[in-house]
Amino acid sequence: MRLSFDADHVRRLLGLSLDAQKRSPVLDQVLDPDLWRKDLPAARRALLDKEVEESGLAFSARADDVDPDRIGPGLILVGDQGVYLMCNVPIEEVKAAGVAHVAYADQVNPELLDFEDWWGAKRESFGADDGTVFISEQMFRSALEKTPTGEKLLLEVNVNEIGVIAPEGGRDGPDL
After folding, report:
1. Quick one: CA torsion of 146, 149, 150, 151, rounded to 10 degrees?
2. 20 to 30 Å CA-CA from 48: which of 33, 60, 145, 159?
3. All domains in the chain, ordered by first residue
4. Can you give the pLDDT at residue 154?
């Protein structure tokens, strides 16, 4: 499903992520051993490694296990009460910058649409479950450069893939 977002709002959110000193990981990043801190206490690292070895996933991994320097700039696509993009920096920093912390997709905005309308579009685009997907700054760069001020940024979203659409209609960046 093609979703449209206020490109200027997305630019502001992405700018905050680019300038941030600290970024927050999404669940997939918390569970990624390649992103864990190198200075984790030996016992903690052993526990996480054992969980990965036994079940393929470190169920007890936490955000503070992640090395914040390894979380790059980008935005988080969220499927929840609507579908929206948000910055991957602490919400306090976003609010302090005077930027609304979420940019809703026009087609899935519970603040503007009736429940039946946004709920159906949420299920079609993101699926029935709630969740988050990190989208790196590189995926947005070209499309935002080509999207004029005041226009919409387009994402093609379904339960299997996400693509950022350049204004000419071509997809920018790899599918997630």
Report:
1. 0
2. 159
3. 2-21+73-172 (3.10.150), 27-68 (no CATH)
4. 95
CB under 8 A, 24+ apart: contacts of 172-176: 172/139, 172/140, 172/141, 172/142, 172/143, 173/136, 173/138, 173/139, 173/140, 173/142, 174/139, 176/133, 176/135, 176/139
Q: What is the pLDDT of residues 82-99, one digit of tens each?
A: 999 999 999 999 999 999
For residue 29, count other CB atoms closer than 10 A to its CB. 22
- Which pLDDT tens digit goes with each residue over 150-173? 999 999 998 889 999 877 644 444
